Amino acid sequence: MPENHVYVRHLSPELGPGPMRLPDPDPDSPDRSAVSKWWPPVMLRPAWVAEHEFDVYHVQFGFDACSPEQLSELVAVLRDRGKPLVYTVHDLRNPHHESRALHDEQLDVLVPAADALVTLTPGAADEILRRWGRISRVVPHPHVVDLRTMAVALDCRGRRGRSTTFRVGLHVKSLRASMDPMRILPTLVDTVRELPGAVLQVNAHRDVLDEDGARRDARLAGYLRSRAAADELELLVHDFLPDAALWSYLSSLDVSVLPYRFGTHSGWLEACRDLGTTVVAPTCGYFAEQGPVLSYVHDESTYDAESLREALVTAYRDRPRFGASIETRRRERREIAETHEVLYRSLTARAGGDACASA
User: Fold this and answer.
1) Which of 87, 200, 302, 354 has the CB geometry, 3.0–4.6 Å to 114, for a possible disulfide?
2) Is 266 helix (H, G, I), strand (E, B) or coil?
3) What contacts 243, CB < 8 A, 6 or more positions away?
4) 242 vs 84: CA distance, rounded Å
5) How many other CB atoms are found less than 10 A from the CB of residue 47?
6) How many Å apart are CA 116 and CA 136, to the nearest integer?
7) Distance CA 151, CA 338 (A)
8) CA 250 to CA 166: how far, in whole Å?
9) Buried/exposed 145-159: b ≥16 CB within 10 Å, e otherwise
10) Is the distance from CB of 261 to CB of 237 less than 8 angstroms?
């Protein structure tokens, strides 16, 4: 869960049905399916688990609003019904939470209780083993961008020459707790200014930059608008981008800089790999284990401006091709689907069933 999320959709084979997944119920009418409104997922309610039929219960994400007590109740209902629990550990630190305390308590319920654990990188698996003594299957993140869009983007990128504008992107979205753009922006501005033909583009959501924005950050807004007025960066302020617009934006960048001071894994990074955009990623978390990136030193306590400058200069000078090919993504998707199929069938066989419907 949630069934409609692109990560979850791409766990199935490209061709063929794969395991049947139950549709996300609408929070306002649990008998209807939700397409995009799934937060928080109805399937996380113990009452839903008690009343519906499925073979495997697979938690991916979406439990931010659940207390540890609610998750314990959920686990108890699964145990009473003899339903296996699979948990894919995407986040060992919640990027939306300023403090790690709540997420750690949630993990302390889910990780020990799971019948099987999956995670995305060897580093995350090692941390899970250290913290809980549990072994995880390491299964890479599937492609995020659809394969047809990938093909167009990668073909266009192959025809772009070195004389075109070198575009460095920083996307602050709605300013997650894990982001610290003000820490790195002066380095970005100063470095890009020194690179002939380079442009720094900063995208932000209206709720952060507008005067009446619900999450307005006056310091960030003032800095960005003053640097834009001085022609030191291009500032684009907009609402949440639909997928087609987001893929077009990422495809236009040569480099996307991740401004995270903590985190674990990144779907944004995977979308950039799909589109052939080089990622400059911080050393916190396990971003560099997801695929080839240029790294710079950045975590909650440390920031090394010179390492960021060197990463940008390397990207400008060498124009590395770190993207994933369509052939690679197709192969990964087959392997990912097969791994989940085998996992689900082994768990249902152990539980005494042979169907494979997952919640």
Assistant:
1) 87
2) coil
3) none
4) 35
5) 12
6) 7
7) 24
8) 13
9) beeebbeebbeebee
10) no
Query: Token digits for 272?
Result: 């950039």
- Return d(Cα 35, Cα 348) in angstroms, integer: 28
AA identity, residue 176? R
Interatomic CA distance for residues 4 and 86, integer angstroms = 18
- What's the half-sphere exposure (Cβ side, CA atoms, 13 Å) at 348? 18
Pairing of strands 25-26, 29-33: antiparallel
pLDDT digits (tens, 9 = 90+) for 84-107: 999 999 999 999 999 999 999 999
Please list, in sequence order, all residues whose beta carbon lies within 8 angstroms of the beta carbon of residue 198, skipping any fewer than 6 positions away. 165, 166, 167, 168, 192, 316
pLDDT at position 20 is 76
How wide is the angle at C-alpha 104 spanned by C-alphas 100 and 110, nearest 5°? 150
Q: What type of residue is 152? A: V
- Domains of the chain in start order, with CATH, are 6-143+332-358 (3.40.50), 147-318 (3.40.50.2000)
| pLDDT tens per residue, range 38-89 | 567 889 999 999 999 999 999 998 899 899 999 999 999 999 999 999 999 9
Indicate the Cα dihedral angle 102, 118, 301, 258, nearest 10°. -110
| pTM strictly above 0.90 | yes
Q: Do the Cβ atoms of 280 and 315 come closer than 8 Å?
A: yes
CA atoms within 13 A on the CB side of 221: 15
* Separation of alpha carbons 210 and 199, rounded Å: 23
Give the DSSP H or E segment for 343. helix 326-351
Quick one: pLDDT at residue 23? 77
Chain centroid to Cα 163, Å, comes to 32
